[in-house]
Structures are given as C-alpha cells and as structure tokens.
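FW: tagging you since you asked about this chain on Friday. Here's the raw sequence from the shared folder, copied in full. Didn't touch anything.
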Amino acid sequence: MSAAVSIAIAHEASPPYEARVELLEAAADLGADELRVLARIARRLAMGARQYGALDVVRDARDFDGKEAREEIEDCLVYFACAWLKREAAKGGVQ
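HL: got it, structure written out here
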C-alpha cells in the first residue's frame, strides 16, 4: 500500500474520509490509463487549491453550469483545435 493510500485510510475521523473512500472504491475498477486521467485531474485540483484555496462547491459563487462553464469549455475546444492543427501542419496535412 502506498503512503498516499495509507494516509487516506488512516484518518477515519477526518471530514473528507468518506470522500477519500469513495474515490478509492471508484478507482479500484479503473485501468492504468483511466487512473492516469484521474491522477491528472487530481493534480489539477490540488494546484487550484494551492493557488485559490480549497474548493467549496456549496459556497463557491462561480456559475458552474452557466456562462462561465460554457466559456471554459469553448476555450478548451480552441486549445484542442489549435493543437490538432499544429500536429497536422507538422505532418504536412493542413495549410
């Protein structure tokens, strides 16, 4: 068992214990690539917590299902399209 897993399990009295158990249970059924995706998202959340403070979904004033979320998705699509065009151009496929 890794140190991170034993830390997650060892703190049964801590408030996020149920959330940690839920995450570990869900991850148990995932393959290697799915786990890498999950780890990438977890690292991104940790970075956000360090930079902006802990996520508190109930009190967070951002519009998660409205304009702000749509704009974030649109930005993501632009980045993916640019990356695709750049790769294709490097292969000589897009001009």
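FW: DSSP finds four helices and no strands in the chain.
HL: agreed, and Helices lie at 3-10, 17-27, 32-52, 67-90.
FW: great, closing this out.
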